[in-house]
Amino acid sequence: MQDRLFTALKGHNADYIEIRLEESNSTRLVYRGQRLEEAGRTASIGGNVRALVKGGWGFVSFNNLDNLSEKVALAVEQARYVGKEESQFSAAAPVTDKVEAEFRKNPLDIPLSTKKALLDEYNNIMLGVPNIRTTSIGYADGKKKVSFANSEGTFIEQSRIDLSLRLTAIAGKDGEVQQVGLSMGSKGDFSAIENLHVKAKDIAARAAALLTAPQVKGGPYTVVLDPVLAGVFVHEAFGHLSEADHIYENPQLREIMVLGRRFGGKHLNIVDGAAVPGYRGSFKYDDEGTPSTKTYLIKEGVLTSRLHSRETAARMGEQTTGNARAISYLFPPIVRMTNTYIEPGQATFAEMIGDIKEGVYARDWYGGTTSLEMFTFSAGEAYMIRNGKIEELLRPVVLTGNVFTTLENIDSIGNDLDMNQGGGCGKAGQSPLPVSNGSPHIRIRNCLVGGK
Prior knowledge:
Layout: H1 2-9, E1 16-32, E2 35-53, E3 56-62, H2 68-82, E4 96-99, H3 112-127, E5 132-150, E6 155-173, E7 176-186, H4 197-209, E8 219-225, H5 227-239, H6 244-249, H7 251-256, E9 270-272, E10 295-299, E11 302-303, H8 310-316, E12 324-325, E13 334-335, E14 339-342, H9 349-354, E15 358-371, E16 374-386, E17 389-394, E18 398-402, H10 403-408, E19 410-413, E20 418-420, E21 425-427, E22 430-433, E23 436-439, E24 442-450
Parallel strand pairs: 4-6, 8-15, 14-23
Antiparallel strand pairs: 1-2, 1-5, 2-3, 5-6, 6-7, 8-24, 9-10, 9-14, 10-11, 12-13, 15-16, 16-17, 16-18, 18-24, 19-24, 20-23, 21-22
Helix pairs in contact: 1-2, 3-4
């Protein structure tokens, strides 16, 4: 394969060319209530060529691996039509490597019937809880092998296994509807989604309990976020702002995301990195063949870096970070997050809530939106905090505000880092990309909570 790809790359006049070939197979199961809507396995093979000429990109994707040199020529021709300036692309030493997939209990070795039987158990447990009207379950696993070569002499074969599961229980009574979900995932370990029977019953019971839970009175509160919701916050509200293609293309964002600017206290450290091992966003090389890194986006409260592809790094005069990723051969790589999290601090949970006279404890996630530095997130569940104790269950709350003000208002960070590996990230039509995010518990002063 190596000789075949390098042969196809020869003889073309371009500043840079890369070829990516991909083989994948996957399993997917989807439930809606009692109904199994989808169950099956798929396999695919394909590839793409990306060429850079005078700052212009050409991109060709294909399912037939014959005549690779002709496909390279087509990508180069496309790039010539749009290229009108000097190409900017960070230099990189050529690499030759082979990376095997990591796994513990390989999901590809588990029969489809066994996977279905396990999901049937979870589904029946949720549906058996009073006032649960329906459920939603989505399971997916797959293995992907990518062969990558470029005109600089790099050749990398890289395989990975991924799986994810989302359980949702939907309760209804007297015109009220509430739901609670659970997302799980793993980098090649089927046992991560086994033995969830107690959790399946718990999410259904909480969905039913929310039908009669009171609403919080809207206003500013001291809010404590659990690791799941805090991880979603740092990913959605700050992580996307750190993607260098957004920054480079948006003058307003460039004025905000200035390296060296302080965004929080010295206890605040935010990291993204595929070099952090063992998570769904972990890998050795990104989809441009750049080695993965561990990047401090915020170090001791100060903005110190952002996430880069080779092109954005060259355009902004900064170091590459190994964050160019493509969800499949149908897409070119773009700047994406990997494993994004807030590093742990020193506080215990009891210490964080101990001096709160009246506040809100928000857990898990339900949904949300962001617009530049403004965010709105809905927590999956919430509780009142009174005089240092967790009290009554509340209807899901909505948190809103400015991400930079919110970062400044984080006054305590827990010692209990936990990583959420469920779900996936979406950007530019590429979704769901395997990522993980996480945090310890964090405490935020003057956080605006929507309610009655």
